[in-house]
Each structure stands twice: as C-alpha cells, then as structure tokens.
Amino acid sequence: FPVTINPEGRITGIFGPMTHRAVIRFQERYREDVLSPINSTSGTGIVGIHTRTKINRFLGYTQN
Fold it and tell me: What is the pTM of this model?
C-alpha cells in the first residue's frame, strides 16, 4: 500500500487506532470504489465489503 495510507509504517497485527486511521485514509483515497457505493464521502474506518474487495484486489485476491 502507498506510504500515505500507513505513514507510521507499523504492522502490529492489532486493529487499533492507527489501523482505524489507515483504513479511513485508504477509503478516502479510493472513495470512488469504496465510499461511493454506500453513498458516503467520508471514511468510516470499518472494513466492509467494498473496502475488503479493494484491499483484496491490491493483494491479488479475486472473489469467485
């Protein structure tokens, strides 16, 4: 992921405040794919279906 999504660069395995902020930044950066389908303009920090799908695409995973 771009460094602007996780500027702290820490990966702890815990969904804490830093991860929540990173998810919001990710959602707002990719708002067309993630937020538009839910009629939102601001990130929620919740990894729902649209956020998870976008993350999976970055990781090379596809849904069947």
Answer: 0.81
